[in-house]
Fold:
Amino acid sequence: MLLSLIFLIVLVAAVVGFVFRHEIKTNFESNLNLALENYNVTADRHSEAVDTIQRTLHCCGVQNYSDWERTEYFSQKGIPQSCCKRPNECLEKDLKDPNKAKLKVFVDGCFFLVTSTMESKMSIVAGISFGIACFQLIGIILACCLSRYITNNQYEMV
Structure:
């Protein structure tokens, strides 16, 4: 019974994830834009997440590096250091000038890179999920067989 319940929960989660994948993308994009708008140097978790995404995927901004020009952070310090191709070569005065910054920062936006990375890994996640679901089904079938075997043999034990 418990295995059946877990199997149904996994199945429903997979279907919901597939059906609402476009809403997930839209929600991610709006949250990434919001994180850029509220970005600051005080190292809150949203700012750290933006920095980690930009450093790891070698990207800058949501659609491209110029997204930072519309933020309050840009007016104070320019484009963040996490966008720099080579952090040692990025000076604050260069990061405040979009034309100079273009030569020193990643120009591609993070939204496309994150979603394409997620989509490329989806087949792996789907394969692993399918494998786990198969093992759960085998467990459910064997549990039912064992239950029936115990029930049938209970009357012969006299």
In short: The radius of gyration is 25 Å. The first helix runs from residue 2 to 19.
